[in-house]
Amino acid sequence: MSPNRTVDESFLALPLTALADAALTRAVDLGCEHADLRVERIRTQVINLRDARPESFTDGEDLGLAVRVVHEGTWGFAAGVVLTAAEAVRLAEEAVTVAKVSAAVNSDRVELAPEPVYPDATYVSAYDVDPFEVADTEKAALLTDLSEQLLAADGVEHVQATCMLVKEQKFYADTAGTRARQQRVRIHPEFTALTVDRATGQFESMRTLAPPAGRGWEYLTGTGWDWRGELAEIPDLLRAKTKAPSVQAGRYDVIIDPSNLFLTIHESIGHATELDRALGYEAAYAGTSFATVDKLGTLQYGSPLMNVTGDRTAVHGLSTVGWDDEGVAGQQWDIVKDGVLVGYQVDRNMARLRGLPRSNGCSFADSSRHVPVQRMANVSLQPDPAGPSTQEMIAGVERGIYVVGDKSWSIDMQRYNFQFTGQRFYKIESGQLAGQVRDVAYQATTTDFWGSMSVVGGPETYVLGGAFNCGKAQPGQTAPVSHGCPSALFENINILNTVQEAGR
Amino acid sequence: MTQLSAQEIVERALAASTVDGQVTFVVESSEANLRWASNSLTTNGAMRSRQIVVISFADGGAGMAAGTVSRTGTPEIAELVAASEQAARDAGPAEDAMPLIGDKPVGGGDWDADPAETSIEVFAEFAPALGHAFGEARDRGDLLFGFAEHQMTTTYLGSSTGLRLRHDQPTGRVELNGKSADFGRSVWAGTGTRDFRDVSVAALAADVARKMGWSQRRIDLPAGRYETLLPPSAASDLMIYLYWTMQARDADEGRSVFAKRGGGNRIGERLAALPLTLRSDPNAAGLEAAPFQIVQASSEAGSVFDNGMATPAVSWIENGVLTNLIRPRAWALKTTAPATAPVDNLLLEDATSSVTPDEMIASTERGLLLTTLWYIREVDPQTLLLTGLTRDGVFLVENGEVTGAVNNFRFNESPVDLLARTVQASRTERTLPREWNDWFTRAAMPMLRVPDFNMSSVSPAS
For residue A404, which phi and psi values (nearest 5 degrees)? Predict the structure, then answer.
């Protein structure tokens, strides 16, 4: 946390209290059991460079407000962009109208689990340099310089660079009396080197492994990641990948680096333990979950070495908040303990449905335009306190593959069957890395995969990875989320050759 | 607070310009939605927004540069223009710089008229009909899940070269997913619409009920290559991904499936054995889309300098042969090839075919009939190998009849290879893409018959 940082004055100067009073008073007058108002201002810059030349630089700001009500047991939601008391009143009225039209198809009475009232809550995420206080020329110049470094290397024909910068400011007020003002900053830079062999028509790429982070501009200037160091290694790694033999499909012991494993955790644990999915709320879209509520406390999710937590509190975590979008304070809890499913991610309505005393704070809307739904906490695999380094893990494998970096991902609608590729794959022979192989994908069923985890790396292998673009809900919403994990060893995993899969 | 009209905002922004050029567009949007699960409402909403996008073009001596700034709501126009001009001055020269478009495209719309809008009332008849369908499903012991959404956007685009263009875009979609009470059987029906007047909840519910009936008998089949019937929705999700990779620049640079060995691109090469045509047309009936370019940020698929450029009907693949790739004007000039812009719809047709999907099922000795595809992701850009899952209904067809429901599969397939291996296509009909309908709803496709579709592994999901 940066103690000197406060929510920007320009956001606090908006008529937040007046909007809340207008909307919530009107909602109560119209007979709502509950109402909340959000005002959100989300500033986004996306900088794209192609071959170290500017491709696009966009600067967007999304400012708006939304009113959500529970009226006679039915949800109603309305959103707009004009920040006046009159519009706040109109939105409260429209939300009630939406609830009335919807009552024809509602048979489940909405009730919310209780939460203490926070009348004057403030939260600012942990960052040093607000990227929107850095001159655009300075940002473009650094990205150009880093791109040029990569493009100058032998064998690198093209370089794609992209940097997304976000500052999210949020005011939440509800009829119980909570008032929360929050500001979060996040950054996602990426560089991809590409090589083309025109004679054979082959092309290959390699991307930086640096994860997106809940940090400021300092992330690109030396805090939290060594960009120049990573960019210096990519050309050789790319060249080796181009010359690498195609993998022989079959069963291997696989060591997965945190730069790849975070995404497998996201897909096969993060989404599978969202209670709304287990209950069927996402059944027609994102899907359901094999980890149904009748299995809570008994489902053997993975090996006894597996311990997974959910949190909205990790420093620099992308899902980290002070309070969620229903006024629930950020928490940490167990999801998988010693390999057994013990917890879900929930919001207030679902907590009530399940008879839980309290929500664990997983409500999120990606902008004022969208209704809050249950979204993912930072879901993380805990390291083994006495676990080995990645090198030590490799030394213990006779015939295997070491997977680094995420690339392609796909998993079914109940979170059983998944297939992942990566940035690079190394053959392991007799405890040694024996060069890269290419055309690799690993395919498994969730519980088989986690059940095969025989070694969990130590704390020194732990990395907080993540993504900006987790998709869920209709209308579609995207959410940023982090996943921490160590390196880990999985035995007897099915490795595909993607060229053979293409029938070549 | 005074509320300027969208047209007034465009005029004020253009009048405030102090640099070489400007394109400003205002998007007025409204939408309403209902979502349901287990025969009951889950979420809903009515939303309105206004987005203002100012793109300034400035030449500081080294070449023309562009800067884009966008805001929602009621920003100060002068500040917005100044910010975009500063962004343009700060940016390096743009590789895609071209003179701004000045010729008015056909179908530029009625500039002076108020924006179109929608509201929750669009569901006034739909919601009770849905409630009725819930009752029928409850009586059968089934559960219904799904989503209905109607959006209306009106875009007003003006330029310093005199363009004043307007486009109204209605977009609607309905998905209805039926499940048995234990979630063990799952089927789907969906449709796109412009106004919900053509949506029959009863027809969608009947489609769901028919497929639930087909699912009574369960048949387990292993992974392998199967003769497969891809219905229009499944075909659309694969063809949309193909469309999204059709940028000329990537092909010309040797970095896409459409790159030719030895250099250049594959235009002129036969991709499909059948006379299949893949095309886009802003005037396609029921699938109408903007007839001019609206671009906020440049990429290999579009250029901010091309805003307002006409986007006429274009064939990407004609009678089986690759004929066009997406090519902004600057890249067209550099490669002496025609400029080609994407259109927000996609049609695949075999003009020689008159068979219906049902007739294709009836003429199948043994094969799999899919419903939809899900979680489609690129595995290998070299071949455009995609992976994904079958979803909500894999049916076994034997001797022309559906004989039961099969487990789901993970597939690994390239849509480019599928075109080459497709042996039959039905008549084309409007369809709703299942996977991509958050971004792409306007599609018309045939059912495709593929003799050897690669089901890579079994998925236990239902």
Answer: -130, 130
DSSP string covering B405-434: EEPEEEEEE-HHHHHHH--EE---EEE--S
Would the CB atoms of A196 and B70 count as touching at under 8 Å?
Answer: no
Query: Using the 8-state DSSP alphabet, how is residue B270 labeled?
Result: B
- Return the pLDDT at A4: 62
- For residue B31, pLDDT beyond 80: yes
Among A58, A105, A503, select the one facing B131 at the smallest CB separation.
A105
Which chain B residues are within 8 Å of A414, Cβ to Cβ? 459-462
B-contacting residues of A 376-395, CB under 8 Å? none
Residue span(s) of chain B under CATH 3.30.2290.10 come to 6-212
Task: Say what the pTM is.
Answer: 0.96
Q: Which residues of A touch B297 (CB under 8 A)?
A: 46, 48, 56-58
Question: Has the ipTM of the complex gone over 0.90?
Answer: yes
- Was domain B6-212 assigned CATH 3.30.2290.10? yes
Q: Which residues of B touch A473 (CB under 8 A)?
A: 43
Answer yes or no: do A55 and B95 touch at CB < 8 A: yes
Cβ-count burial of A10 within 10 angstroms (0-12 exposed, 13-18 middle, 19+ buried)?
A: exposed
**Angle of helix A136-151 versus helix B77-90 axis, rounded to 10:** 30
Residue A388 has, within 13 A of its CA and on its CB side, a CA count of 14
> What pLDDT score was predicted for residue B2?
57
Query: Is residue B420 within 8 Å of residue A378, measured between CB atoms?
Result: no
Contact at 8 Å (CB) between A484 and A463? yes
Report the first-to-last Cα separation within chain A, whole angstroms: 53
Nearest CA in chain B to A290: B461
Flag whether residue A10 sits within 8 Å of chain B, measured between CB atoms.
Answer: no
Chain B: give the shortest CA distance to residue A337, in Å. 25
pLDDT value at B133 more than 80:
yes
Collapse the DSSP code of A54 into the 3-class scheme (helix H, G, I; strand E, B; otherwise coil) and give the result: strand
Q: Report how far residue B374's alpha carbon sits from residue B437's, in angstroms, rounded to the nearest whole number.
A: 11
Q: How far is CA A226 from CA A194, A210, A223, A232, in A?
A: 21, 9, 8, 10
Cβ count near A275 (within 10 Å): 24
Kindly tell me if the per-residue pLDDT of A312 is higher than 70: yes
Phi, psi torsion values for B333, nearest 5 degrees: -65, -40
CB contact under 8 A, B40 and A79: no
Q: What is the pLDDT of residue A107?
A: 86
Q: What is the pLDDT of residues B310-358, one digit of tens each?
A: 999 999 999 999 999 999 999 999 999 999 999 999 999 999 999 999 9
Q: Among positive and negative, which fits the CA dihedral A303, A307, A309, A315? A: negative
Residue of B nearest to A110 (CA): B42
Q: Rounded CA gap, B28 and B157, in Å?
A: 11
Residue A288 burial (10 A CB sphere; 0-12, 13-18, 19+): buried
| CB-based contact A56 B255, cutoff 8 Å | no
**CA–CA dist B283, B289 (Å, integer):** 7
Which has the closest alpha carbon to A336: A406, A400, A272? A272
Longest dimension (CA), chain B: 74
Residue among A135, A137, A283 whose CB faces B177 most closely? A283
Whether residues A369 and B131 touch (CB distance < 8 A) is answered with no
Q: How far apart are CA B21 and CA B158, in angstroms?
A: 11
Q: A362: which residues sit within 8 A by CB, 6+ positions away?
A: A274, A310, A312, A324, A345, A346, A347, A374, A375, A376, A377
Report whether A217 contacts A134 (CB < 8 A). Answer: yes
Q: Closest partner residue to A77 among B43, B67, B304, by Cβ?
A: B43
| Interface contact flag, B68 A62, Cβ < 8 Å | no
Query: Which amino acid is located at B454 in the chain?
Result: N
Q: Are B204 and B166 in contact (CB under 8 A)?
A: no
Evaluate whether B5 touches B115 at the Cβ level (below 8 Å): no
